[in-house]
């Protein structure tokens, strides 16, 4: 006997994403591509201070690069949100005001299983780590928001203002980390009544593949749509080639 909802797998959990897939459309004037922390601090193994696995970094960089190129060609606003951490006037590091991060550092623990990482040295303002991966831009016309200080891409940034100015009602999210910053963005976009689309293979988690998959599952079953990069690239390319106001992925 199958357990009732709440005592095992939720009823219909497997069919919900499939049922909603046909209802997803990306409209010309309403879609924005938002890349989240696609900087060298995560994605460049040579300098990363909180690295994802090297092979995963290459995969994500390639997928996000294809999304950006197709988005620009389809007149989709491309918005890059990048975390930076400031050194305060007294010499302290801004991120160390967070008690969890502070204790991770004090305990000399790594947030990246099997790889060294640093919280206090991550993406210090002006460092090479805060720059986008070169394959991603920024290109002329891209918008860069570099006031992200924590997991949220909205808190204390002007992203909300940018999206409202552009009359966006759908955000396509890609980047690092699936289970923290990307999932936080999905929650916050959902709470703003935006349509949430997360690109499965254009995301990854430095915390581990298990949390990457958990983040995707949570979005797909609770918050929005999880799709492949090729589906979005194809949609953006059709957008560039035809004048219809909407099209299915």
Write the layout of secondary structure elements.
Layout: H1 16-21, E1 25-27, E2 31-36, H2 40-43, H3 54-73, E3 78-83, H4 99-106, E4 143-148, H5 159-165, E5 170-176, H6 178-191, E6 195-204, H7 209-222, E7 225-227, H8 229-241, E8 246-248
Parallel strand pairs: 2-3, 2-5, 3-4, 5-6, 6-7
Antiparallel strand pairs: 1-8
Helix pairs in contact: 3-8, 6-7
What does this structure look like?
This protein has a single domain, classed as Rossmann fold (3-Layer(aba) Sandwich), CATH 3.40.50.850. The protein is 35% helix and 18% strand. The chain has helices at 16-21, 40-43, 54-73, 99-106, 159-165, 178-191, 209-222, 229-241; strands at 25-27, 31-36, 78-83, 143-148, 170-176, 195-204, 225-227, 246-248. Strands 4-3-2-5-6-7 form a six-stranded parallel β-sheet. Strands 1-8 form a two-stranded antiparallel ribbon. Helix 3 (54-73) packs parallel to helix 8 (229-241) and helix 6 runs parallel beside helix 7 (209-222). The longest helix has 20 residues, at 54-73.
Biggest pleated sheet: 6 strands, parallel
Number of discrete helical segments: 8
For the record, the CATH architecture stands as: 3-Layer(aba) Sandwich
Helical percent range? 25-40%
Which H/E pattern describes the elements?
HEEHHEHEHEHEHEHE
How far is the first residue's CA from the last residue's CA? 37 Å
